[in-house]
Amino acid sequence: MKVLKNQLREWKNQSKKKNKKKRKEKFSTREIEDLMGVHRPCYERRRGALRQK
After folding, report:
1. What is the mean pLDDT of the chain?
2. Which of 14, 15, 40, 51 gives a 20 to 30 Å CA spacing to 33?
3. Which residue intervals make up region (Disordered) (predicted)?
4. What are the backbone angles phi and psi of residue 27, rounded to the nearest 5°?
């Protein structure tokens, strides 16, 4: 019975504590595109040489 009482006490204490919410970071569309690499120079092979698009 002692184990059950201890467990009930712990659950009671846990229910009193509030969970902290994490702040969501708000990114602009430009920042998201930079992360994806949209604004980086693109290179491709043309006639054997690397050319920038």
Report:
1. 85
2. 51
3. 1-28
4. -100, 145
